[in-house]
């Protein structure tokens, strides 16, 4: 076990320790202390995570790969001859994710101390303060466990633990009906997704024979290539011939179902907005920064088990979610609900990014999003706490004077989520880079797909040429924005190789070597690329449009909260901010502004799974680290550049539009919402596209209706039958009773009853309640039996 | 018997036990302590007689020596102590006084320990003395003292019950002895005795799980007994 | 050469066993019953050790089992005495006939 693993394991267990201690001693520690206790646990974890991150950052990829390959695996149990191992999945993604979770959690814990101190939280005379931090610690443990698990089984265990904590914390104010309802809703909806997850797990275990992430991925790639295992299986399911490829796709979709539930994707997104019933730090921690990210993390982890069709499914779900929820976010008036819907939309972006193959970009977006969304939620918590639990932005306004720190850190968050930055440069906040990259890959997949020259090359390539490599690369000098794929083919085609070198960055040669070292067979990669369908156009344009909508609703919520004139004097009068609560805000704002691009992006690139025959990963050519790792198909830089005029100024447009409408308060917006066609859509959006209604109608009412039908059946069919039978029996028994019962049977029955009574009385007597009599009976019986046997044998 | 009378004066209820029983008890203790040495007084040539039974190595058969002297001695010890065991067990049956019963039980247990010595189970014999004679019996005496206003209070049972008990006991004894006499046991030759070390090794390897369970049981008993016997508030 | 065999020990054990059962059958004192139980356990132990001794393979099973029986007997005695004191506390007597709540 290297010290990286040890640190990660200790870091994971520390919150568990503070959880256990808080369970037993939390109520003694009392109000501020129990909180500081949890903070201490998470703080040490965070320090460990920082050390690991720093150490890991300093290693070169080969050393990282070596450490990863030598990671310790503890054999926990074995089923038959299949061992179930437990260990730390040690790679850059784990390290970064671990750091992100501990860092964000730590500051949110600190914030919580301030936030919870102002609450009257007594229930039955018992303070719930320590309980809050107990659950937070448990949550921290489960989330970290989920992050470091090397096995899908343990990932699932921690996954469920995280869900449980979410349930506890959403329903933290369980004396309020809506809060406990929201908790139940979240739990039940997540179960639906988890069912799929479990299904996927079973298929993985059945077909791949292991639950270890790395082994499963290797086995999957092997089976894909050989056409054996799951790909060689055909199942007849109620007359429907399921081919191996479909089975593999179903397996991927099953695993993805877990992510649909936890990351609140369409159609299971309904729980997340309701989850805002929990305390605001919980919303920040669980429902924005970390837990919902677990779904994305899961998809990233099982990425190599997804077939192209499954990836397409992922992309479509992500696309639908990001569009729908962003539109709903426009009309919400509860500050937390706006943020909740924006979270959904951003999660949609991540899922979409994974679906189109932008692995690095999607996880990069996850990191940046965690920072700025945690900050935004904490800012909203500050506002809510300062305004005495007023959550409606219609009643706020002008708070910048009362809460300067909150106002401006919130603004940094708004800029970040809107993707503000200067196009064609690398200057910009987190969201600028990450969203841009996702959209760039989407553009590549919709407009420039398959990369040119792929098919010709594939036809020419010898199948067994393992040493060859190929980067799909646009020559942006000559192409004028068009992607001219130039296949380079090792020694076999020296001329082509020269051209390819010309087109790709200077360090491409090392990239080739790295590709060779990773054993990436670029032939089959391209075969896969050419076999993958071009995505429909709308899958590029919908996210682009939403990139314009996002700045609009974020500006709207910021402006209505902090700018303009106060709309409710009472709320405004009481507003104030607390130091303990704005310090985390500033820290997270700084993290949002600076840390992500220069630290996380390169590391994530090195974490990208080595492409296999079955997995499509698209990297960006401009990034030296991507090419250096040769993670997958390289996207020409030209495509990336083409994107800039399309979305580069989206944040400006969105901001200006929001400012124009909301600069004088709500009057203009109200007017617009009453216009004929817009009014219709407005109403639909306010009702959240009627999802809750439909679910209520289909599932809740459906169950009730079915029950009603069953009752009808009972009443009119079964009862009828039984009533008839009863009538007949009655007639018959009246007849027979007159003849038989009164005389014959009664006599017998009474006789039996009497004798039973006598027998009972006799049997009762030995029950003296005295032990020695019982011993007497037992010994006597034993003696009789023994003697019986003895005499029997003698005879 | 000076010590005994001093003791009786101090404690006050020993007179009720009867001097005979107490002297018999003292004798038994003495004999029990001698027994291991006596039981193996016929060492095989060329080997020193081990001074303590506990140290007896496995290759030194103590009571299984082929020497007729040893066999006679063994038989004498067996018959003597078997008689003591039976007599004292029957004495328990007929004594009406709980304190007397306790003393007779002490004698029984001690003599059974001697039987264990004869069976070459030295460790068990020692444990029998320490745990039973030393621990359990003291516990019983404590029970007697804690639960009785007068230790020699008598509770008679009905004559009919007594009769039934006698009949059942005789039947049971006949049945048991009849059964075991009528059974052909697979082997009648004594096996080589074990060193205590073997016992310990087995206990901590093959029988580790029951050993641990027993330790947990003892813990549970400790807590349970303390809970049951605690002072009510 | 030996005069004493397995049956000798078994007979002694049987007699002790019967004596124990008899004690359990005839004593009204709870501690007396406990003494009877101890006798029965001892009888069993004699059997175990004797069988262990006169067993062809010479395995230690019999002794180990006897050891556990002693442990159990000690545990049982501790609990039983605790129960007796409790009984005494509740009913102010040690006469088991007074505790006949289970009477039919």
Work out the helicity level of chain B.
55-70%
Poorly predicted runs of chain C are: none
* Major β-sheet annotation of chain C: none
Low-confidence stretches of chain B: 1-17, 41-65
Percent in helix of chain C: over 70%
**Given this structure, which CATH class of the largest domain in chain B is correct?**
Mainly Alpha
What does this structure look like?
The complex is a heterotrimer of chains A (795), B (233) and C (104). Chain A is mainly α. Chain A has 31 helices and eight strands. Chain A has helices at residues 3-57, 61-69, 92-117, 129-148, 152-170, 177-208, 213-226, 244-262, 271-274, 280-289, 291-301, 308-331, 335-356, 359-386, 404-418, 430-447, 454-460, 476-479, 494-503, 508-518, 522-531, 538-562, 569-574, 579-607, 624-629, 637-647, 650-662, 667-673, 676-686, 691-764, 771-794, and strands at 73-79, 82-87, 122-123, 126-127, 235-237, 240-242, 618-620, 633-635. Residues 453-521 and 621-631 of chain A have low confidence and may be disordered. The N and C termini of chain B lie far apart (45 Å). Chain B has three domains: 5-34; 69-169, Up-down Bundle (Four Helix Bundle (Hemerythrin (Met), subunit A)), CATH 1.20.120; 193-233. Chain B has helices at residues 2-11, 14-17, 19-39, 68-94, 98-118, 122-146, 159-182, 196-204, 208-228. The longest helix of chain B has 27 residues, at 68-94. Chain C is an all-alpha fold. Helix content of chain C is 73%, strand content 0%. Chain C contains three helices and no strands. Chain C starts with 5 loop residues before the first helix and ends in a 13-residue tail after the last helix. Chains in contact: A-B, A-C, B-C.
């Amino acid at each position: 076990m290297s010290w990286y693993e040890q640190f990660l394991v200790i870091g994971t267990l520390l919150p568990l320790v503070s959880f256990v201690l808080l369970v037993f001693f939390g109520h003694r520690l009392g109000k501020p202390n129990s909180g500081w206790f949890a903070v201490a646990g998470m703080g040490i974890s965070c320090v460990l995570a920082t050390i690991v991150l720093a150490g890991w950052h300093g290693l070169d990829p080969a050393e990282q790969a070596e450490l990863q390959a030598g990671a310790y695996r503890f054999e926990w149990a074995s089923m038959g001859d299949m061992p179930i191992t437990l260990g730390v999945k040690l790679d850059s993604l784990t390290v970064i994710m671990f750091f992100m979770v501990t860092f964000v959690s730590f500051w949110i814990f600190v914030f919580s101390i301030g936030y919870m101190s102002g609450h009257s939280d007594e229930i039955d005379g018992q303070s719930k303060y320590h309980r809050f931090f107990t659950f937070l610690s448990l949550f921290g443990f489960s989330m970290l466990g989920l992050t470091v698990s090397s096995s899908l089984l343990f990932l699932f265990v921690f996954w469920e633990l995280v869900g449980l904590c979410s349930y506890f914390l959403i329903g933290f104010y369980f004396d309020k009906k809506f809060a406990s309802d929201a908790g139940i809703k979240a739990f039940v909806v997540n179960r639906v997704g988890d069912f799929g997850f479990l299904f996927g797990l079973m298929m993985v275990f059945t077909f791949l024979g292991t639950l270890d992430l790395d082994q499963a991925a290797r086995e999957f790639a092997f089976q894909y290539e050989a056409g054996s295992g799951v790909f060689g299986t055909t199942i007849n399911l109620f007359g429907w011939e399921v081919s191996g490829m479909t089975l593999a796709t179903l397996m991927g979709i099953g695993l993805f179902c877990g992510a649909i539930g936890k990351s609140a994707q369409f159609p299971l997104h309904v729980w997340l907005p309701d989850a805002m019933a929990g305390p605001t730090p919980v919303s920040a921690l669980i429902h924005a920064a970390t837990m919902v990210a677990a779904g994305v993390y899961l998809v990233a982890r099982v990425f190599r088990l997804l077939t192209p069709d499954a990836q397409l499914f992922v992309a479509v779900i992500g696309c639908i979610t990001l569009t729908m929820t962003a539109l709903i976010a426009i009309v919400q008036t509860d500050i937390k609900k706006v943020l909740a819907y924006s979270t959904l939309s951003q999660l949609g972006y991540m899922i979409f990014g994974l679906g189109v193959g932008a692995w690095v970009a999607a996880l990069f977006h996850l990191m940046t999003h965690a920072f700025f969304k945690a900050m935004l939620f904490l800012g909203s918590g500050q506002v809510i706490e300062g305004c005495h639990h007023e959550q409606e932005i219609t009643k706020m306004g002008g708070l910048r004077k009362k809460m300067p720190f909150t106002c401006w850190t919130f603004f940094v968050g708004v800029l970040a989520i809107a993707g503000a930055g200067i196009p064609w440069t690398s200057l910009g906040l987190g969201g600028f880079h990450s969203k841009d990259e996702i959209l760039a890959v989407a553009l590549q997949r919709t407009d420039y797909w398959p990369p040119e020259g792929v098919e010709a090359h594939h036809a020419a390539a010898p199948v067994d040429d393992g040493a060859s490599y190929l980067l799909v690369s646009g020559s942006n000098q000559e192409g004028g924005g068009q992607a001219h794929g130039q296949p380079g083919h090792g020694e076999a085609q020296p001329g082509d190789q020269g051209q390819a070198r010309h087109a790709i960055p200077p360090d491409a040669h090392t990239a080739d070597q790295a590709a060779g070292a990773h054993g990436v067979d670029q032939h089959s990669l391209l075969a896969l690329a050419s076999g993958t369908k071009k995505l429909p156009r709308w899958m590029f344009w919908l996210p682009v449009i939403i990139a314009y909508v996002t700045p609009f609703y974020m500006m709207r919520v910021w402006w209505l909260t902090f700018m303009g004139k106060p709309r409710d004097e009472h709320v405004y009068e009481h507003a104030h901010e607390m130091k303990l609560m704005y310090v985390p805000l500033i820290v997270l704002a700084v993290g949002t502004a600076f840390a992500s691009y220069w630290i996380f992006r390169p590391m994530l690139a090195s974490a990208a799974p080595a492409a296999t025959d079955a997995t499509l990963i698209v990297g960006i050519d401009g990034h030296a680290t991507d090419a250096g790792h040769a993670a997958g198909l390289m996207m020409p830089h030209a495509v990336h550049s083409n994107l800039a005029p399309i979305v580069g100024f989206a944040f400006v447009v969105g901001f200006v539009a929001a400012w124009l409408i909301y600069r004088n308060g709500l009057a203009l917006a109200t007017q617009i919402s009453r216009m004929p066609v817009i009014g219709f859509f407005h109403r639909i959006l306010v009702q959240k596209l009627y999802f809750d209604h439909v679910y209520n109608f289909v599932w809740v009412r459906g169950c009730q209706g079915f029950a009603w039908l069953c009752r009808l059946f009972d009443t009119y069919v079964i009862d009828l039958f039984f009533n008839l039978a009863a009538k007949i029996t009655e007639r018959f028994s009246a007849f027979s009773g007159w003849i038989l019962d009164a005389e014959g049977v009664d006599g017998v029955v009474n006789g039996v009853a009497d004798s039973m009574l006598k027998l009972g009385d006799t049997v009762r007597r030995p029950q003296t309640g005295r032990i020695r009599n019982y011993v007497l009976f037992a010994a006597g019986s034993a003696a009789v039996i023994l003697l019986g046997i003895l005499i029997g044998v003698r005879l | 018997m000076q010590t005994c009378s001093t003791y009786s004066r101090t404690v006050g209820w020993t007179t009720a036990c009867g001097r005979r029983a107490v002297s018999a008890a003292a004798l038994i203790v003495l004999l029990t302590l001698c027994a291991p040495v006596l039981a193996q007084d016929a060492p095989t040539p060329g080997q020193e007689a081990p001074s303590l039974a506990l140290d007896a190595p496995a290759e030194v058969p103590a009571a299984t020596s082929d020497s007729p002297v040893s066999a006679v001695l063994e038989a004498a010890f067996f018959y003597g102590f078997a008689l003591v065991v039976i007599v004292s067990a029957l004495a328990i049956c007929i004594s009406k006084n709980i304190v007397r019963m306790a003393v007779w039980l002490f004698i029984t247990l001690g003599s059974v320990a001697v039987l264990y010595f004869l069976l070459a189970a030295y460790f068990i014999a020692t444990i029998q003395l320490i745990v039973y004679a030393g621990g359990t019996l003291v516990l019983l005496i404590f029970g007697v003292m804690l639960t009785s206003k007068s230790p020699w209070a008598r509770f008679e049972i009905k004559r009919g019950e007594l009769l039934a008990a006698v009949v059942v006991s005789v039947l049971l004894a006949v049945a048991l002895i009849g059964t075991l006499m009528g059974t052909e046991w697979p082997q009648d030759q004594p096996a080589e005795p074990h060193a205590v070390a073997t016992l310990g090794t087995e206990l901590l390897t093959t029988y580790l799980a029951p050993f641990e369970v027993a330790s947990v049981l003892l813990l549970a008993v400790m807590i349970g007994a303390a809970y049951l016997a605690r002072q009510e508030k | 050469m030996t005069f004493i065999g397995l049956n000798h020990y078994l007979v002694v054990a049987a007699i002790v066993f019967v004596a124990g059962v008899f004690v359990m059958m005839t004593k009204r004192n709870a501690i007396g019953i406990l003494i009877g139980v101890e006798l029965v356990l001892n009888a069993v132990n004699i059997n175990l050790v004797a069988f262990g001794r006169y067993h062809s393979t010479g395995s230690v099973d019999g002794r180990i089992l006897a050891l556990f029986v002693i442990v159990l007997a000690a545990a049982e005695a501790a609990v039983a005495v605790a129960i007796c004191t409790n009984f005494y506390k509740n009913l102010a007597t040690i006469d088991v006939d007074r505790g006949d709540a289970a009477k039919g």
